[in-house]
Design brief:
single chain, alpha/beta
């Protein structure tokens, strides 16, 4: 694992009786991971095997910060970025750049949000920073690291002012890892192990955006093969595709299986691996400790099959039984997509209905058009052709590739589906 630590002034931190633990912690982390520290002034602080990269004050000027961090991230390509500053504008710029690149972030607060600290220069210093960037930064980072349970409790009541208590915490992705230098019976190595576990937890919590283009392609290939299981000759990967599957390492399989678990397609992925003869490491995705990265759609769990349109469709005796079921399933899928509730398992189920059943295509097309789903259905078919290998001979309408389809692809990507 490659970890980048951002500490604005390492020399000052190392000389602090309270924060001095960081130097030994980073040295211990460097024994277990590839660690780089980005700082303005490192002094002569010993950090073991960790690499130190320094920057100039001019690099943090408003016009240069983003470019500097962009180049640093391109060069270092970290798996996780650990930020040790919560009132620093440069830290906000770095967290934004990490968010843009989907790099997991952890922030250590070092008790800088406790009431006694917030009250210092509140009107002239703290409040303007809260308004400009600080609160957004705290809610954006992947996880917040606290040095004690008391510090965590203080954060849960952190609002615009120490006297104002919020309705909910800014960020519920939190972890308490106590410093080894003030905790009896622990060591720098033990703290480093706990910190690495936190890094892994943050990375595992958003697997889709950690996946490379090849890993997403591999998931598509395995899904297609799994959906065609039991039907020889369907969705057989070519040699180029097989080379992509063979190139997957343990980390790639871990991300694929975690995402497949979230999307309800784990069984398809396993069946696809068996169909293609690809061996994979067992990953108990349902037992992995993870954060809940986003609240999800407010419509999640809603039974769209009970909507008025679907209820009216189910009572339409003019349609044969299977055509009525297919129209209802497709309409529900479109409504789920509209409300950001769809999963890959919904598309996989639709593939099976369309690919392996005989039905009256004209009746299905006309009924969905009459329900106001005509164009949306054609756009979904276009996506299913691109990502699920559904041939036009099994579609009830011509696929549509227009601006609405482009927006659909973007929505599915932002929803971490595909």
């Amino acid at each position: 694992m490659r970890v980048l630590h951002f500490i604005p002034n390492l020399k000052a931190v190392a000389g602090s009786s309270f924060l001095g633990y960081k130097a030994q912690l980073i040295a211990a982390l460097a024994d277990k991971a590839d660690v780089t520290v980005l700082t303005r002034d490192a002094g002569h602080t010993p950090l073991g095997k960790a690499e130190i990269r320094t920057f100039y004050t001019a690099d943090m000027l408003a016009m240069k910060r983003k470019r500097f961090f962009s180049k640093a991230l391109d060069s270092l390509r970290p798996d996780v970025v650990h930020i040790h500053a919560c009132w620093n504008k440069a830290a906000d710029t770095l967290s934004k750049e990490c968010a843009r690149r989907s790099i997991p972030t952890v922030m250590t607060l070092d008790r800088r949000l406790e009431a006694w600290h917030v009250r210092q220069r509140y009107w002239s210093h703290k409040l303007p920073k809260m308004l400009l960037f600080q609160r957004c930064m705290l809610s954006r980072v992947g996880a917040l690291h606290f040095l004690s349970s008391n510090e965590l409790s203080s954060f849960e009541t952190f609002g615009w002012h120490p006297c104002l208590k919020p309705k909910r915490s800014l960020n519920e992705r939190t972890a308490v890892i106590e410093p080894f230098n003030i905790t009896a019976g622990t060591s720098a190595g033990a703290m480093a192990g706990a910190m690495l576990a936190l890094y892994r937890k943050v990375a595992d919590s958003a697997p889709f955006f950690q996946m490379t283009a090849d890993e997403r392609k591999a998931e598509d290939l395995l899904l297609a093969a799994g959906m065609a299981a039991g039907h020889p000759g369907l969705a057989t990967p070519g040699e180029d595709d097989m080379s992509v599957l063979r190139s997957l390492d343990g980390k790639a399989w871990r991300r694929i299986f975690i995402h497949a678990h979230d999307e309800g397609i784990s069984d398809y992925i396993k069946a696809g691996a068996e169909q293609t003869g690809i061996r994979y490491p067992e990953t108990g995705a349902d037992t992995i400790d993870r954060f809940r990265m986003h609240a999800g759609s407010k419509h999640a769990g809603k039974d769209f099959a009970k909507s008025k349109k679907i209820s009216k469709l189910k009572s339409d005796a003019a349609l044969p039984d299977f055509e009525r079921v297919l129209c209802a399933e497709f309409a529900v899928l479109i409504m789920k997509i509209r409300h950001s509730c769809a999963h890959r398992s919904d598309f996989a189920r639709m593939y099976g209905l369309l690919r392996f059943n005989e039905y009256d295509e004209d009746s299905v097309r006309d009924r969905l058009h009459g329900m106001g789903f005509g164009k949306d259905a054609a756009r979904v078919l276009q996506v299913m052709e691109e990502r699920y290998n559904l041939g036009e001979g099994f579609m009830f309408a011509d696929p549509l590739d227009d601006n609405g389809t482009r927006k659909l692809r973007q929505k599915l990507f932002k929803s971490e589906i595909q």
